[in-house]
Amino acid sequence: MPDIKLVPPHPAGTRPTSPASGEVNKIRVLSVLVEDGQNTLTKVSGVLRRRGFHVRGISIGPSRQPGRSRITLQIDHGHAEADQVRKQLERLVEVIEVEDLTGDDVHSRELVVATVAASELNGLLERGAKVLSTGPGGTTVEFSGERQEVGDFVDELTRHGIVDVVRSGPVVMRRTA
Amino acid sequence: MVLEALEREGVEYIFGYPGGANLPLYQHLPEHPRLKHILVRHEQGAAHMADGYARARGKPGVVFATSGPGALNLVTGLCTAYMDSVPMIAITGQVNSTQVGRDAFQESDVIGATSSVTKHSYLVTRIDQLPRVIHEAFHIATTGRPGPVLIDICKDVQQAEANRVVPDYVEIPGYKLNGHVNLDQAREAARALAGAERPVILAGHGVLLSHAERELMQLAEAAAAPVGTTLLGIGAFPVKHPLSLHMTGFMGTGWCLKAVQNADVLMMVGMRVDDRVTAKLSEFAPNVKTFIHVDIDEAEMGKNVRSHIELVADARLALEAMLPHLGKVDAGRAEWLGQIDRWREEHPLRYKQSNGRLQPQDVLIDMYRRARSEAIVVADVGQNQIWAALWWNYDRPGLFINSGGSGTMGFALPAALGAKFGRPDLPVWCVAGEGGFVMTAQELSVAVEHQLDVKIVLLNNFSLGMVRQFQDDFYGGIRSQVDLTHMPDFVKLCEAYGLPALRVEKFEDIAPSFDAAERTKGPFLIDFRIDPEANVYPIVPLGKGLNEFREAPEYA
Questions:
Q1: Domain B360-536 classification at class level
Q2: Contact call for residues B193 and B265 (beta carbons, < 8 A)
């Protein structure tokens, strides 16, 4: 039996024509379990593009179930109603399930790997960065944390002279009670 | 192996076109006489034929095309079927699996090009995938909200030999079917409808697809609620019924639009609530206190209008579940129905009858008199489509076929031929304007080859009538690129193709021409030279709310 929400995310009787108030409210965090296949990522991204949703962050990795992967998405749902992202993804045959983690009590982690020119790294190490390698070209460190922490860490990096930096999309998991 | 699977799925007809990448299929086709193959003249024609077949027959239409241009020519037809939820299986040849991605001759990314216009698609690169894929494809195309499914099969797979493993069931973990009804929601919906002062029910294609016409009638009568249909819902509720509002939407009847705009409870069943139904969204049904939406596709919920009561379910099951819970119906209903009757009198459908030129409505009224609700009418897109929708009191389901969501010009002729293949027992009329007709006119060869008894009513106004009307009324009266005076002589064109045709320019000649068409077995075309200034009314100006509909002037 389908789960029909009695209290929809938008008040009933409204027509989702005006943009939702506040940028933050327009971001949904979705955990999407998919069947592995040549077309899966194309289909998922195709739906997002066609329906006017914007991908803020994405990460993909194998799930515990063989032949299935988990995609974590941060989506700006634009002018559409928030729940449309989930429903449109659910329609795809490649998609097994979509979990909306927006606003839930979650662990949300992103990874950053950076090479900096400076040899004085205390500011970075105090934040929890780990040194991966050092050499004449600089020192390469990794750091993981929540989006904001990673952002702050990158700001800190700039003070150390960034040679190169890469950031991952988020991986998100609901906290156990 | 493909052909055997199609036989197992009960396929009668394949509409297709051979080419380099599907030659292995065609090599073995003669070994399968149960599969009747119709050779079209263009792949788009194949897709529309399969579409018309599916809508008339209630079974999925099957299409074959080769790789590259062959497959890409299907795109418009797939989109037409996708927008209108028509079950279809398109089997396209692909280059050898070892050549995929190397820009081989006639290679194209068919999955990429069609994934936005198909319910699902498969690229088959290994023979062992094939039995499961074909079985799954039929399951997905025909269940839930139906739609087209494309199977792109590499040429080497078509040629491969394999053990014939027939799957006896399919397991598709990511395919969710919303068939069942939430009974609490059904009860709530029934109570809202019964307690309404000014209820309106709108019925869409989903009612026809789930065969819920009887339940809709029972519910409407029990709740004393008037019923309008969408363009694709035509036939779901008999137009002559006292509770009928006829067609809704931006070219719907004035009394239906008045009812929608004044309703306090609006129940929308089996429909997408798209912009052609709502017109300006912020002004749609402004007095509604309770929206009820019934649809099998959860993604339709809140896509355009967020309803108070949402039933994600098969329309028939949902209506059936509501019936026992209607309880006592509001006693003030007579006042509301009386008001609608007054609107019906104040805003009748009307057209110009006395300017000496042939009026399209006169042509259609005579055609429909002969059709007597027993014929399938397939309309094209444009003015002809709306005239065909409005000027007949459809009282049975499944008799009006047209491209509603996609609005594909050129749909009517091939779809009408497909409908005739599907329902040879019913008369089939094809209504088209000359603009759309020439887009797929090459399929006349198919009509002649198979002597299909399809009567083509060409409403020829020497212009792109709907565009001309929009330019006249909403784009500053600038007639730009709508003139179609340079068209073939359609009687001679038919002669060249080998079917009889007549030209009609006067009202008196309508009936004799139809007599001639009906006397003639096989295809027949009548080129009706209609009033080039004839317009579609009522019409809501683009960007305006439904209550701003414009009506035909009162003619003397």
A1: alpha beta
A2: yes
